[in-house]
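lol ok so funny story. i was supposed to be doing the assay writeup but got distracted and ended up predicting the structure for this chain instead. priorities right. anyway since i did it might as well share w the group, maybe its usefull for someone
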Amino acid sequence: MVNADCQVLIEETAHIFAEIIRNNGDKETTIQIPKKVVSVTLNSEKGKEVYDGVFSLDGKKGLLQTKSDGFLKSNTIHYLGSGQHYTLATRHGLVYMQLEVGNSFTGKLFLYSNRLSHNPKNEIPMVTFKNQ
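and the output, tada:
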């Protein structure tokens, strides 16, 4: 039902679900990030759009909210079962997210059309965010 309004990301959503099933026994994460103010940059066809937002993560689930009226307005985050791999649930479907945590944290959202020919590690992220 995550992409009931729009099927734009239906293939992405299917691949994310497959990733969850593949990683279903891997070590769980214990990352805790209380509500933090973030700066979110969307790389769109219009150019860069920057929004203030709030990010939180409690182990396997989290939330990213921005002052955008678009698809980044309020989205849940789910752990994919290994490493720094997460997914952001949008009204269009699921989007792959990498999260790097240290003294501060950064995140990258990737949108790509075919996992057989693209690797998100080699792509320019559609969205980046970092705590302020």
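Residues 105 and 130 are 6 Å apart (CA to CA). The mean pLDDT is 80.
back to the writeup now i swear
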